[in-house]
Specification:
Helix content is 51%, strand content 13%. With 332 residues, it is an alpha+beta fold. It has three domains: 99 residues, no CATH class; 52 residues, no CATH class; 101 residues, Roll (Chitinase A, domain 3), CATH 3.10.50.40. Helix 2 runs antiparallel to helix 3 and helix 4 packs across helix 5.
């Protein structure tokens, strides 16, 4: 039987203390947040599991929108709670199967992995123990977490049917036919740019004069790529000014208008802008088109595999929940 307390899950969604330094607020009072059969998840465990990188990204994106930021932090916390619940359900399923003799996990595998982690991450056991102590963790706790990680992954692969997934050619072809916009490529150019920035030691007039000299050399037969390697001020200088595939919406609008009017092999006149001068050469032009099926077959197959893996895992987790006791508690 599955039991969920009438207290809404959102009762768990308290503001993170200072959003790890981004907000101010009271410290979280620890206590039981969720009970999964006989196991528990504490509020501190939830706090510890919140992904720091995700928090920083949310702060960067929604920092000036307090309400939206709070909603996104609450969603992140809710997702974290559910992942912890699912992890406990999987580990308890393994434990029950292990007692019944259905599952057996080779401890030697974890021993070998511990040795590898010590060698690659820490160098030696002494350094490992000191590093873990700094993180508030013992070597035994680290080993248990590692063991649990492997068990969860192995159980997912075995019970969610991941190893049996096959995607038929018909499914791939159907997906391709039904989603043409996903494989559409806009107009694309192979573009070289010479960027000459106005600098304290070179004002706009001097920058334009240098651009004129470079353009005269190119018209005289000098290689555009060589001129870019010698004189360009941007990050593509070492590549002879060559940029990755350029689309209309990936280039500055003022430069894009000029670049997409050039024909393959054609070099632009000097493009004067507030920040400096630019010279551009289009080497190739590829008009907008839908990628051929053979170009994206592997991509589609992977996407369909991932979609099916997610569906099978969700079904399996729901089966585990129906025979489990899961209860959520309000924060103290």
């Amino acid at each position: 039987m599955r039991f969920v307390s009438s207290i809404a899950l959102t009762a768990l969604l308290l503001p993170l203390c200072a959003v790890r330094g981004a907000q101010s607020g009271p410290q979280t009072i620890n206590g039981i947040a969720v009970k999964v059969n006989s196991a528990v998840i504490t509020f501190q465990e939830i706090e510890d599991q919140i992904d720091e990188k995700s928090l920083r990204l949310l702060q960067l994106r929604y920092g000036r929108q307090p309400d939206a930021f709070r909603q996104q932090v609450e969603k992140l916390k809710s997702d974290t709670v559910e992942l912890l619940v699912e992890r406990l359900l999987i580990l308890e399923e393994f434990k029950a199967g292990e007692i019944a003799g259905n599952y057996k996990f080779p401890e030697s595998y974890i021993d070998d992995e511990m040795k590898r982690r010590i060698r690659d991450r820490f160098g030696d056991s002494v350094t490992m123990i000191k590093s873990l102590e700094h993180e508030g963790m013992t070597k035994e706790a680290f080993r248990k977490r590692l063991r649990d990680d492997f068990i969860v992954r192995a159980m997912e692969m075995k019970n969610a049917g991941w190893e049996k997934i096959t995607v038929s050619p018909h499914k791939i072809e159907t997906y391709y036919a039904q989603n043409p916009d996903k494989f559409k490529v806009e107009d694309e150019i192979k573009l070289r740019i010479i960027s000459l920035k106005n600098r304290p030691d070179r004002d706009a007039e001097a920058t334009k004069k240098k651009a004129e000299e470079i353009l005269a050399n190119i018209k005289g037969g000098a290689s555009f790529a060589e001129m870019a390697s010698l004189h360009s001020d941007d990050s593509q200088r070492s590549e002879g000014g060559l940029w990755p595939p350029v689309y209309r919406d990936t280039l500055r609008e003022d430069l894009g208008k000029v670049a997409f009017q050039l024909k393959p092999g054609e070099t632009s006149d000097i493009v004067e802008r507030e920040d400096g001068c630019y010279l551009m050469k289009v080497e190739e032009f590829h008009p907008a088109h839908v990628k051929a099926l053979n170009e994206v077959r592997a991509e589609i197959e992977k996407a369909l595999e991932t979609e099916e893996q997610r569906r099978l895992r969700e079904q399996w987790i729901e089966r585990l929940k129906t025979k489990s006791f899961v209860s959520y508690f309000p924060a103290p």
